[in-house]
Fold this protein.
Amino acid sequence: MTRTATVFNIERFSSEDGPGIRTVVFLKGCPLRCKWCANPESQSRKPQILGKPFVCVGCARCANICPQKGITRREGMGFVTDAKVCTLCGTCVDGCYIGARLVMGEEYTAAALHREIVKDAAYYLHSGGGVTFSGGEPLLHDDFIVEYSDYAREGNFGMLVETCGQVPLASVRKASAVADGVFFDFKHIDPGRHRELTGADNRQILENLEWLDGNYSGFLSVRYPYIPGMNDDPEAIGGFIDFVAKLGNVREVWFLPYHRLGLSKYRGLGREYEMGDAKPLKMSDIEFLKDYQDRLSIPIRI
Ligand code: SF4
Ligand code: SF4
C-alpha cells in the first residue's frame, strides 16, 4: 500500500523556516495540546472542516444543506461543525459561495507532494533553500519523511524538520538520519508545569534533545516560544538556558514572541481559545532575553 501523510497547508516562499527560500509543508497530528498553539487545525490527525468566522456573512446556507445536520450557529463563533457527525462530504464547502468553509487536511503520497514542492526548485537552488516539514508534529509521519527525502536528495535541495520532541526516540533517529537540520521546540523546563501547559511532561522531549545533541551531525536549533504567564518567569528561562548550556551540539537558540494569529481558527473549529486576552508581544518586548547571552556560547536570536 502506498504511504500517505495528511497535509493541511503548503506555504511557498517562506523565509523564516530555515535558510534560503523554502516551502513549508504542514502535516496533521500532534501529541501535545499547547494552550497557545497557533495551529489548532493541526492537532487532530484527521481532516476536518474549518470555518472562517471573519469571512462568514451568516446566511445559514451551510447549516441548511448539510445532510448530517451537523452545523449549528454558536454565539461568538458563527457556524460550527460537529466533527462527530461530519462525514467530510464537502457539501457545505462547495455550497458556501464566499469561501468561508474549508476542508483542512488532504492525503498526499510523497510523489504527489513532490510535484508541488518541486515547482519552486529553481528558487531553492539559487537561495540555498528547500523544504521544511512542520505541523502539527511532522515526526508522527517519520516513514513518510524518510520516503520524501529521496526526492529532496535527487532534486539537490535541503530538507529540515521542526519538532516538538514528544515522539519516540526511534522517530527522531529515523527523521534526523535524512534531515539536514532539526528545529527543536522547548516549552518548559519543569515537568509538572510542562504537563499543565501542553498535556504531557517533558521527559521524552528532553531525552530526545539530549540524544540529538550527542548523535546528530546536522544543524540543530532550539526554539523557545515566549508565552506571557506560561513560561516567561526568570526560573523557567534560567532553567532552559542552563539546560542548553550543558549541551554541546546546539548551534543557536531562538526566542519566539507570543502572537494571537491562531485566534480565528479556534472560533472556526468551535473551540475556546485558552489564552484569554493575553497581549501579543513585539520583538522589542523580548529583546531583553539577549541578556542571557553571557551564559551561552552559541547565539541567542529573537
Ligand atoms: S459559512 Fe458560508 S454558507 Fe455558512 S453561514 Fe457563513 S457565509 Fe453562509
Ligand atoms: S462536510 Fe458535509 S457532513 Fe460535514 S459539515 Fe459539511 S455538509 Fe455537513
Summary: Residues 48-104 form a domain with the Alpha-Beta Plaits fold (CATH 3.30.70.20). The radius of gyration is 20 Å. The first strand starts at residue 4 and ends at 14. The chain is about 30% helix and 25% strand.
